[in-house]
Protein 1
Amino acid sequence: MRVFVLTGAGVSAESGLGTFRDRDGLWARFDPSKLATPEAFAADPVAVHAFYDMRRRDALAAAPNAAHAALARLERGLAARGDALFLCTQNIDDLHERAGSRQVHHMHGESCRARCLACGAVAPWRDDMGVFVHCPTCGAARLRPHIVWFGEVPMGLDRIADELAHADLFAAIGTSGAIYPAAGLVAEARSRGTPTLEINLDPADNAGLFDDALYGPATEAVPAWVDEILGGAP
Ligand code: APR
């Protein structure tokens, strides 16, 4: 059995990291057109760096929750019986990894990585970044967060398509289904006859495309679902 899990901001909400589109979400407090596009970075790199520095600090100060831990347990449990999990996240935090997940595909990038616009190198990055900070590989002061901004192509779409093509079950957890191409994965899975499940606090924009749904806080719904999948196996 191959399980494809897509996660969104809702899986990290109970770790204290704001979602984007909930009432007091990030995009209610910050303007994405001024902070999360390549044009915004070209126009005001200082403001964009400050925004992602804040998000990086918040992510590093946060702790994984029971939903992250359950997905790490699912990865181990499936592997132990010869099955597999493909964990694809839209989140740029590293809470899945800190909960013990070994394989995490960050389709929208990672806040704890820097990319150099001069040499293309990508390096782990835990400190604040800025326009005067030099690339550890080539020395140029042209670093940007290794993030997918609006208008840019998500990372590893070929891998995602391949994993989806071989999935026996598709589950979306804590995502509003507002942003494509991630929001389109359920329709792709459906068109292949793959069973689909939504786990969310409230029905997502594309809730009607899912065969099944579990509604409730991720820290409750995800461990219960993982118990079910693993049949009570530890
Ligand atoms: N448990 C489960 N789900 C939750 C919880 C919770 N505790 N809290 C919120 N949610 C759900 C909300 O109901 C909503 O459906 O999580 C979803 C969060 O939706 P968004 O804020 O739109 O986040 P996401 O879907 O991850 O956004 C997708 O948009 O802004 C871009 O690149 C950014 O990756 C992001 C993408």
Protein 2
Amino acid sequence: MSDSGTSSTSADASTTTATTTTTTARPAGLESNWGILSTEEQALADLLLKAGQAHLFDGWDAAGTNDAQKHAFLAQVQKLHETYPFPGGLAAYVDRAKALLTESATGVNSLDGWTPAVPEGAILEPGSDKYCEWEAAGKEELGATAFVLVAGGLGERLGFSGIKVALPTEMTTETTYMEFYCKYLLAVGAKKGGKGKVPPLAIMVSDDTHDRTLALLESKNYFGYPKEQLTLMKQEKVAALADNDARIARPAEGEEGVNLRYAIDCKPHGHGDVHSLLHRTGLAKRWEGEGLKWVVFFQDTNALAFMSLAAALGVSQKLGLEVNSLAIPRVPKQAIGAITRLTHTTEKETKVMIVNVEYNQLDPLLRASVSPEGDIADPATGHSPYPGNINQLIFALPPYVATLTKTHGVMGEFVNPKYADAARSIFKKPTRLECMMQDYPKVLGPEAMVGFTSLPAWFSFSPVKNNAADAAKAAQGGTPPGSASSGEADQYYVFAEQLRLMGCKVGKAAEATYAGIPVSLGARVVIDPSIALNFSEMKEKIFKTPEKVSIGGEATLVLQGPGEVEVQSLELEGALVLSVGGGTTVIVKDLVVKNKGHAIVPVSEKEEPDEVLRMRGYRLEKQGELRVQAPANAGRVVLTAEGQVVPEADLLAAAAAASAAEAKAAADKAAAEVAAATAAATAAATAAATAAKAAAAATPVKPVKPLAASAPVVSAPTQGAVVEEEDEAANDNCFLRAFDCFKKRPARG
Ligand code: UGB
């Protein structure tokens, strides 16, 4: 969306009023067509003239030529006027644009006069006792939460021809982002906390993404998501602006048959539209009416954000936060915003707000107010002192609905033109006004509890945003690449590392470079949300004896539900893919898996036809794997060393029978020896009686029948289509500090 490197100018929509009212005489192009226009069309043309847009009629053919296109043009004007999400329609948009463009051209920064400081918030260490406490509290809240995916962005920086939610999260299972999100929320609904109801999911799409998002959902039968719980909300684009006078731009190029004289160039308005859409559709209000307590906003390609969701909800619930932003330790210059505590003092008052400062504004703001060095690392940590915003936001629903009712979801807008000249009078390409969803705290009063929850990046943030060339440059410069390959590597790492934290032995693959980006793609562990949603579920249900689990650095472990798995003891070198039907629990015990596993094979950027592989620079070659499908409703079953699934009861009975048979054999032997001893006739008689008794008790050994055969080896290679928690006291202080800060915040306007 916003490119870094330039300053931007913004304003609060609610305080900007329309000022442009100059009426212009009709230009010749319009005058000669006036008679063919309806009254409504004439009104729209007048609106354009009053807004200083007479140039849009330049070059119009005389009446009788291309008339249909003229009507289509005015229909586009009407749409832009009606769908501008904030009050005042197109005229207000142009007015606001003129004001913001003038400020930008004269170097005014909306943050002038504000001084940033590092805010206080909850900083969590995954796996720690305190973390588990937050997570336990938050798990209870998951079932009372509505979810909103913002997926209207085309991802121009990524350069992918499809929609981003259709990208695979990793190539081992090829689960797409959309599928992952649906699976996670379906699993939430299936849990006790979800009260058996799948949470509502709203997806914000745009003209760029609507049709393909719908097609993806329909082609996959909505991934099993109940349609009544899923809503697509479409954000509309706004007019592109060609110069500092906010003259609306015509498209530079158009589709075949479209006459560019009769069209307006349009651009996305930013993810901030999500608030006005949730207001206008009435969804937020409906969710509140259904008794839901929270709403979570998340982005299109960051599946990791769900790992920490329960813990962050726990923070919101325990600290009573109205707004809670998920954050990570930020690498200086990383293209993510920074959560700051901004203060603005005048003679009359001091205003304070805890809010995101976007990455392109942070450096100039710091230079102007804190230090000429700008956005640099704290030498003690190697990170920026300001937590990095990952735009996963948790809002308390009732106050959110109240705010929407008051503001209609209107966010402050900003403009970020790229100038072609030093005088800042010519744009490299048309710009537009935008708004951001994380600016929401700016419309809240001083009493609002606004905070953040910081977790390590490996645990909560690895989006796919950059094409390979840009990602390689970022990696060289020391910032996370944000590529398809790093997204995949981190998707494996988040599970592998949590297993390590529990005490499993999990190797790490050596780092290798693909398409110029260094990644370590192993161990490749994928645990489906249907099996476990978070750390404590993995620890308490799956890996209860972690010291008996060992997974090689190049190995692959996939666990898929909807059933359950207990990994009691496992040695894995190669690939194990275990899928469990509902109503079945598979016990992995004394299992040693050694096969060729999945190999990573580089692909040529020039020759590889598959875009998804090309953007990674490698493919997966499945050279060997143990693939097991345990049937549904089988109760507790054991995955045997032979790779077979056998009812646990049968195995237990067989083991009991075997030990009884052993006892009988021993007794028989003893009896025979005793009988042979002529000198001990009495003892022999006694032993024989004992043996007879044991024989009567022993059950004959029954052959154990497997329920499912596994596919042990795939031989044909298959292409893969800021308070660290140091101790208990420190943790407690962390709560207190966070809480104190909220309570002590001075009033702000
Ligand atoms: N999006 C929309 O739905 N509609 C739009 O009009 C635009 C975007 P970008 P950006 O976490 O990495 C944001 O473009 O804007 C969706 C934060 O501002 O990927 O560069 C889009 O589909 C920044 O503070 O992100 O930066 C996607 O899902 C930082 O947190 C989402 O909005 C950064 O994200 C984000 O759009 C980050």
Protein 3
Amino acid sequence: MPEPLAPPSDEPLAADADGEHQRVQTALAEVAADLSARAAAAGGDAQQVLEAAALMAQDPAILDDVRARLGGGANAEKATWDAYAAFRDMLTEMGGYMAERATDLDDVAQRVVAQLRGVPAPGVPASDEPFILVARDLAPADTATLDLEKTLALVTQDGGPTSHTAILARSKSLPAVVGVVGALDAMADGQLVIVDAKAGTVVLDPDDASVTAARAERETRLAAATAPITEGALADGTTVPLMANVGSAKDAPGAVALGAEGVGLFRTEFLFLGATSAPTVEEQTKAYTDVLQAFPGKKVVVRVLDAGADKPLSFLNDAHEENPALGLRGIRALRASEQILRDQLTALAAAQAATEAELYVMAPMIADREETEYFVSLGKELGLERVGAMAEVPSIAVLADQVLEVADFVSIGTNDLTQYTMAADRQLGSVSAMQDPWHPAVLRLVKMLGDAGSSAGKPVGVCGEAAADPGLAVVLVGLGVTSLSMSASAIADVRAELLTVTLDEAKARAARALAATSAAAARQAATV
Ligand code: PEP
Ligand code: MG
């Protein structure tokens, strides 16, 4: 269990401020170099996370703040620690993606202070034996560079399903259960435990039979990861295309290599998160063409800019709102700035004309038929063939029959659909237990959408994190979902699980989950 570094003392500065400033500057550069080296070694998603951390370590604003604090009489460690804390508070205040990155800053601060102290940075303890790692939370730099030969599974006390730890663990196919309240007190070094990431449970002191079953399950999982890449299908041959979620053209080669049959969600706002002005049609055409080119003849579902709440785009909605998740976001923000939406749809039509991919375009946060009609007619006016809606607001599920009269397809965003169904902020650790797409209330809404899709003869996919949970993927198919899109690294496990059930079995599991009275009960009813 990794221990955090003790915080610095309040002792006043006893040395020369300029010399101490120089010492902090050197420590920052060394930490940045170490993080960059870890980034290069890690590759993939982890590389981006660690490169961002290396940049944070070198942020000139932090060094300026450290100088001011040294000038005010703080010692070097304290000045550094507090400068990072102030920066972290500022990011937390900004909310959304910025707030999630705030916890990464704590790790950078610990590394710099360790460097100033001349002690090793806190990290994963070395072990000769394979082990299950239990921690309060893990720094991205540690998660990204874990020795996967030794680390069997990960349990953290803090962190929600969208924390970097969870995302990186998923991208490494490392079984992980995050946000286990009291984990550190409940477990001791050397204790035997089973981590069942599928069921989301940690079993302490299991009996021999459970250990044997868990070992067999692990073997099956490892075999699935190396199984040949085939098209997504159930045991009876029912096809279920398995697609990838991407944020830019950089993600495309990895997705293709892992067997993605297309893209089920291209989050275009990821390209422009830092931008202060709207991207031009030319810039966008290039970015979209780059992604579409990687999937000739394949389906690529592009989501138009999803601004607001957890994805701030200052050029679309920078008004301060008390409740941004319920505010001017998604299609509402685009409608309020229609020229930005027109430019994006124009760029998408140009990218479609320039490539061989089968382009589908959808809008986020659509609530009803009127909004669907608005978006579909604008998309068609600007030359797009297949235009649809994301199902993230519960009202669209209730009105699914009406919406599918006008939309060419629907894709369910289970992250937001769960947040709004359960009234549980997806960014908030204290309500993360409510943020569970296994909840029968969420599953019943998915069924309404699946039924409406099958009556209308139109596709209904899932592109939220729920699709990456193999057990839940089976249930979603049983509820009428026709394709699944997820982080490419999750595809192998989902493919293997789908192959173990027929459509009738998937429907039976779905029926049991729908009848359950809680998320945990639904998971259990569908998994046994
Ligand atoms: C979702 O809400 O499930 C979704 C896929 O969109 P995002 O996670 O980008 O909000
Ligand atoms: Mg969403």
